[in-house]
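=== Structure Prediction Worksheet ===
Name of assembly: unnamed complex
Input type: mixed (protein and possibly other molecules)
Chain count: two
Listed entries:
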Amino acid sequence: MPADAAVLHRLTAKVTATAHPTGATCACPAPATQTLTHRPDATVVRHTNTVAKAHAPGTDPTELTLRLTTAARLPDILLAPLATIPAALEDRLVTFWPYGIPVNPDDPDAAPWEAAATLLAHLHRTPLPTTSRFLLPPMRGPRKAARAIARLRAALDTTCTPAAPPVLAAWCALPAWARAEAPMTGGSTTGGPTTLCHGDLHLGQLVRHPAPHGPWRLIDVDDLGPGVPAWDLARPAAWYACGLLPPDEWARFLEAYRTAEGPAVPRTGDPWPALDIPARALTVQTAALALVKALAADRPLDEVEQALVDACARMSSASPELTNGFPK
Amino acid sequence: MQCPKCHAPMHTYNRNGVQIEQCSGCRGIFLDYGELEALTRLESQWSQPAPPPPPAPQAYPAPSAPAWGAPHGGHHGGHYGGHHHKSFGHMLFSS
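=== Predicted Assembly ===
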């Protein structure tokens, strides 16, 4: 059995056993088991009301445990895990969760922008206990962006495309912290960030729990940690800036975040000085991954992907100094 | 100099020898005669290889979108078909 099929097979057995802890024979109505995600970096399987996730190979068990504990402490914001210690399944770490209903991908008009923004504002306003501040690893947003660029560079070893130079140039123009080459700063006298961030917000990171009519909660703690909170707003910001997300939806998201007194942007006035660097980074990250996919499939970019590359090209003529502050 | 739109003070930048005034209030930009052409020329010398032509900087960009945003992104965004474009629909849900 290929390795990825073996992971899916073992995880399916594990989630079924966890859903029936007494060893009772499963009598759940078919189809009780459903594969929700199956990628190299994550496999997620559901059995009725129980969900098991196999985390990326190489995930640090201590860091994952700290992130699970944080989620368990914040059940009004993050979906609480069924256990705060990950289980080992061969070479993968597995966590267990209650099932929640995700946003319907076929009906993104129903996207809960206000709920997403309000949950983020509450997360960002959560005081980090001193112990977590030092123990919880940083939010991994910049590392994910750096990984996307590494994948693009690897793809360019064997092929080339005129779309790559503007993406790489926009990446190189970002400050070191946004490229995961220097620590994020701000928020405390000791220099480290103190704002708890999600690190990978998109519409797939929201579920209603209890299903189907419970309140929205954020899921996926893999990138959770102290960091620059504007990073959590930066994906919608980037979509809006690239002309993909309609302005009214961006306005609803931003207004809800401000109403809930989220600290990432000033309460009034221009939010872009705070959003500019993270939104550039997310645009570059998304463009890089789109290019990797297009190169692998040997197809041209579609117009949405091209819009991301075009935004990267425009970044070189709009330096961060010009958009992000004023001369001293 | 004061911004003709919101009357806040404007600050002067020197970008590659071109003087630019930017408003500290609404962040609009004022260009003297010929400066837009000078900037465009400089950018086209700089950028490589053959990127799309730089967008014409708007004299007073909307404060609610970044300078590198889509030409109409801040004002009429979603012109790529919004959610209903399959590629963007997928992007909304992916890392």
